[in-house]
Amino acid sequence: MKLTIKSLLVAGAAMMASGAMAATECAHSQWGSDDTIGSANLITPENTLMAAKLVKQGKSVPLGIVIDSTTPAFAPRSLSLQVVQPNQQGGQKLDGFGYPGNYNDDLLQTWVGIGSQIDGLGHLGEAGMYYNCLDEKEISAITGLTKLGVHDVPPLVGRGVVLDMAKHAGKEMLGAGENFGEEEIKAAAQAQGVTLGKGDIVLFHTGWTEGMLEKDPKAWVSGEPGINVSGSRYMASLNVMAVGADTWGIEPVPPREGDGVFYGHVVLLQEAGIYILETMNTGPLVRDGVKEFMFVLGQARIRGTVQMIINPVALY
């Protein structure tokens, strides 16, 4: 059967309808019934100072990739950029500058869930419910989320950890549909000499984006390796702040047998209030032998957004 996003979603809907992923009663957040920022509550001055101690060499690496109008994305997402020179048609220069000035401006029409991005807590839920028992009818206005908007998320600062899951599997790159769960994550962490814990930002390196995005962009966005539902539940049990990967959706496509399509998103976002970081640029960290680092993210604050294009920084 030809693999398409549509076929995956249809299959996932069928699983839901059959009761395989039947919704259970909603449980309020560990941070209280009024909380809207989830794991961002783990950001404290003490944890920030501890993360700063991981900066040993003074190096920084961008964790976001460069994107443009050709960057493949989960359909129907797209991006279009125009650079314009307002009121300068025909070589006109600007009055009032005191000199023959000229300038460029830019217009951007885009989905903000494209390229390197953060998924906010209002992105994916189940049975009409989102994080902390918030009902879709309450928060999902067409003009922007009334609660759980990414603009409300404070700067995410903490200890970052990168786990090389490709290396753990003895490969340069994991293939589409290959997945890892609690057992593999524990083994990889032990083999690489790192621990995972409360408030960490955990990034998984699979080699997928570096290996496939330029080589075969259609294949890159049609499938991916990633963390299965077991792995997502393990991450939630550790009370981490965010989970990310060098893939466009962090989870395997096609999913592991028995897992709902992107159901790990539900586990992390809705159930646990843990942020998701997609298409992270983990390759440079892995090649430089980095295992832990200071993670810093200050996303654009457009009121009510579900997701946001991001470029976090790894400092080490």
What is the strand and helix layout of this fold?
Layout: H1 5-17, H2 45-52, E1 60-62, E2 79-84, E3 105-110, E4 117-119, E5 129-130, E6 134-135, H3 136-139, E7 140-141, E8 144-145, E9 156-164, H4 165-168, E10 179-180, H5 182-191, E11 201-205, H6 208-212, H7 217-222, E12 226-227, H8 229-238, E13 242-245, H9 263-271, E14 275-278, H10 283-287, E15 292-297, E16 307-309, E17 313-315
Parallel strand pairs: 9-11, 10-12, 11-13, 13-14
Antiparallel strand pairs: 1-17, 2-3, 4-14, 4-16, 5-6, 7-8, 9-15, 15-17
Helix pairs in contact: 5-8, 8-9
List the defining traits of the structure above.
316 residues; nine-stranded mixed beta sheet; globular; Glucose Oxidase, domain 1; 17 strands; two-stranded antiparallel ribbon; 2 domains; alpha/beta; 10 helices
Description:
With 316 residues, this protein is of the alpha/beta class. It has two domains: 25-73 and 113-315, Putative cyclase (Glucose Oxidase, domain 1), CATH 3.50.30; 79-108, no CATH class. 23% of the residues lie in helices and 20% in strands. The strands form five sheets. The protein has a nine-stranded mixed β-sheet. The chain is globular.
Sum this structure up briefly.
By secondary structure, the chain is α/β, with parallel strands linked by helices.
